[in-house]
Here is the input.
Amino acid sequence: MAGGALALIRRDFQLALSYRFQLVAGTLGGLFTLTIFYYVSRLVRVGPFDSPDEYYAFVIVGILILQVLNSVLAGPPTILRQELVAGTFERLAVSPFGPVGAVASMMLFPFILAVVTASILLLFGVAIFGVDLQLSTAALAVPAAVFGGLAFAPFGALLVALVIVVKQAAMGTTWIIAMISLVAGIYFPVALLPGWIAWAAEVQPFTPAVDLLRHFLIGLPLREAAWLTIAKIAGFSALFLPLSLWVLAAAVRLGQRRGTITEY
Amino acid sequence: MTPDAVARDVEEQATDVDTASSPARPTTLVLQGVTKRWAGRAVLDQADLVVERAVSASVIGHNGTGKTTLLRILAGLILPEEGTIALDGIRQEDDRREYQRRLGYVSSGDGGLYARLKVKQNLELWAGLAFVAPSQRRAAIERSLARFGLEPLASRRADRLSLGQRQRVRLAAAFLHEPQLVLLDEPFASLDDQGADQLMAAIAELTRRGGSSLACAPADRPGVSFDQAYVLADGGLHPA
Here is the structure.
């Protein structure tokens, strides 16, 4: 199975390279975002942040995590739509690797690319805007990002299952990302959420993943014990990753039964 | 059920299927009692078919009789409502990966290639997805390029090929992993005489090594002939 996944990672890398300015343009776009939020952060002089620089470090890490999240959630449904329209999904579906493995593997390259781009942008943030990176723990952010990615992946798998069945998932993807931005503490601390929605910050894997990454990258204290934060992420992955793959396989079988699997 | 038991079961089924072919010969493909309905209309109605080893077969029929549906069911893209299909004694539902490893498929149309990838990169991708061993990939790709006269185009992007050249790349991908059965839906579309000759040579090479092919193709193309022909009509397959 690893051979099939590697073949698709290589394909996506080759496709990304074929658009010569895509990677540079993506990084430059991120740099603009970093710059905009630097000046927005100059306006922030409220608790729980002691200084604009503290908020800037907080929000920049949140935005970079959102970028990684986007790669797992918004990327695969878009890629699958393109595959269906171009007729290339049919080739994946008849391959020994199979449609479920192929669709699941569609998340890998966008995720790797997003982690690399986010790392580059974070270094820009350190070099240009003086983000106080915790060098002693920053390297732990890489395994933490992979760990978090496994927890985000079930959402991506469910969205591609939706594309297989109803051929569209753009609206669902936008909604999910907006909700996550709101309740996972991407732009502001979840402590600011009103009571009636505060529970939403605790019942998904994004909040603990964001907390963990901020802890490793900029030394922000965890809201809960480290073991509990990690257990929440691991528990979510262990429960929902197999479940989402089962749903994806069921969506594929439904498409095969209805004869719509390669339709768009 | 173990693979051996499945194989025995399928061989027994093959002897029961009423076709023009001799049941004593080893079979590659056995399709039995397959039914598929579109909007309530049965395009395949308890259809049976046995394709023996080392045989090239064709299916002919009017437009809309279900030829493409038949090939898509055999390729595993569509599930039938009823019936069983086995390839070398392996049912797709029992061992999907082994079933697909034995299969090559060229759909109708000109899709299935990554436009911005080069011809060789498209074939490398297919080799990876088909689980061709890394040590054998290079040779398999070179053989496939040579089989369809694609060496001069190996470094050209797929979106810069003519339709006929694209079709040859699609055929090269289907034959690349040395499958036991190649399904071809309108394979001569866009092919010039040279391309058609290359395809017939590839089919001949396939049958020489014991493989089989099943094509939905017009019967009247000059220089093209198959060992067996079936007519698909009224939901059933009948020897032509």
